[in-house]
Amino acid sequence: MFSISSNPRIKFSDRLYFDRYRYCLRLDMPWVESVRYLDHDRIDYLIEMWDTHDWYERKINKGGTWKSRRRNTLTTESKHRLHRLCDWLLEFQGSVKQQFSKDKAFIYSNDQGELEMLVQDINPRGYLMSEVIIDRPANTVKSRYDGFTVRVYLRSRSMSTQEKQTLVKFISNNKPHIRINVGLERFVTNNSVRLRDYFFIDLPDRRLLGVLELMVPGTIRKIMDIMR
């Protein structure tokens, strides 16, 4: 009996995918991005266009980086798989959500059995099923470190030199009482002035939140309670 559920990747979280879906199926399929518009004519048009462009890059522009490109020609069966995927998405439109990124598709659903049948039908080059397990209240995060109750995620943006110096000063002055992640540690010591949205600071309580906002306004992106 066909099954892809024996060893699903488990993701522990405080919420479902997009606050709605329990399962995510990642499909690895050449040129699957052509399915984005859920239109069979569009799939054929994009495949022909991309295939012609790939041929031109390798055959006409000889040498250099063009010559080193790997040709990604689709077989007839591979094209049929794309059309079967399109049919499936049209059939379940409204009950699933899909995203595409080059040769990968991500399909979100609450019906694991239907996703398994899809994999069986299209036989993709590769796939991975993931399942969300809700293990904590919404808007909370888990940490294995003692002494912290609040996590502050920073906003992704470019800082002025003065703003960075002020942020570094806040971290330095409160270092015995806070914890920062590895990315923010590197930011503190390098020449970059670009904050990333995965930078965070763990605080013992909420009293330092106001201090951080006053010192570097507009830096806080999200505040989450830490669960043990």
Q: Helicity, in percent?
A: 25-40%
Mean pLDDT: 90
Task: Give the quaternary arrangement of the chains.
Answer: single chain
Radius of gyration: 24 Å
**Cα end-to-end separation:** 41 Å
Number of domains: 2
Question: Strand content of the residues, in percent?
Answer: 25-35%
Biggest sheet, open or closed, and with what strands and sense? 5 strands, mixed
Number of extended strands: 12
Count of separate DSSP helical elements:
7
- The secondary-structure element order is EEHHHEEHEEEEHEHEEHE
Could you say which overall geometry the principal axes of the C-alpha atoms support?
elongated
Spatial strand arrangement across the major sheet:
1-5-2-4-3
> Structural class of the helices, strands and pairings?
alpha+beta
Q: In terms of per-residue confidence, which ranges show pLDDT below 50 for 5 or more consecutive residues?
A: 66-71
Can you characterise this structure?
With 228 residues, the protein is of the alpha+beta class. The protein folds into 2 domains: 9-134, no CATH class; 140-227, Alpha-Beta Plaits (2-Layer Sandwich). The chain contains 7 helices and 12 strands. The strands form 3 sheets. The chain has a 5-stranded mixed sheet, with helices on one face. A hairpin with a 2-residue loop joins strand 3 and strand 4. Helix 1 runs antiparallel to helix 3. Mean pLDDT is 90; it is low at 66-71.
